[in-house]
Amino acid sequence: MISIIVNIAANNAIGFENKLLYWLPNDMKRFKQLTTGHTIVMGRKTFESLPKGALPNRRNIVISRQKELRLENAECFTSLQEALAHCDHHEEIYIIGGASIYEQAIPFADRLLITQVDNVPEKADTFFPTIDATIWKITKKESYPADEKHQYPYCFIDYERMCI
After folding, report:
1. CB under 8 Å to 38, separation ≥6 — which residues?
2. Domain extent for 19
3. What is the model's pLDDT at position 18?
4. By C-alpha distance, which of 135, 142, 143 is closest to 162?
5. Residues of the chain by 3-state class (helix, strand, coil), percent to 5
6. Which helix (H) or strand (E) holds 153?
7. Which of 19, 28, 95, 158 could make a disulfide contact with 140, Cβ separation 3.0–4.6 Å?
8. Residue 164 has pLDDT above 70, yes or no
9. 140 — phi, psi (to 5°)?
10. The domain spanning residue 156 has which CATH number?
11. Are 41 and 108 in contact (CB under 8 A)?
12. How far does CA 149 lie from the centroid of its chain?
């Protein structure tokens, strides 16, 4: 099972200057709950954006064109296909960014786990691909209002690939 997990703005923006656009405690809790004990796959820049390096209690896989790259507590591969080839068929794999890795992973993904923030940021330089409604169907949607810890309303939206 390959899942893409991402926090996106209303205009599909996901980042600015290698940082997340939104800090949503409930999104972080959901991310941790879903990915702990599983494999996470990310690009090098996403790995470098993690404040403490490799995320604990997960198999961390980093994709980079740098063939000799070595990162503490992470496995490095030069392509998404190479990384996936080193995963067992029974592993739950979560693709966690960035934009290039998401773009490459969509054809392989079984699920999209989206946190949709009801806001368009002033500045963004990284975007998530458009979700094609002919390929993906919504299987679950939970909406939440803005509150003291969440500046904007948001939804958790789970998609599954439709069988063709």
Report:
1. 58, 59, 91, 92, 93, 94
2. 2-161
3. 86
4. 135
5. 20, 35, 45
6. none
7. 158
8. no
9. -160, 140
10. 3.40.430.10
11. no
12. 22
Cβ–Cβ under 8 Å, residues 129 and 109: no
Within the chain, residue ranges assigned H as helices are 25-35, 44-49, 80-85, 99-105
Number of domains observed in the structure of the chain: 1
Q: Which two tokens stand for residue 71?
A: 């990162």
Average pLDDT, stretch 129-148? 96
Q: Are 101 and 41 in contact (CB under 8 A)?
A: yes
Token pair in block for residue 53: 């390096």
**For the whole model, what pTM was predicted?**
0.94
- The DSSP 8-state label assigned to residue 22 in this structure reads -
Does 28 have pLDDT greater than 70? yes
Which two tokens mark 38? 């599983």
CA separation for the pair 99, 95 (Å, rounded): 10
**Predicted confidence (pLDDT) per residue in 37-89, tens digit:** 999 999 999 999 998 999 999 999 999 998 888 888 999 999 999 999 999 98
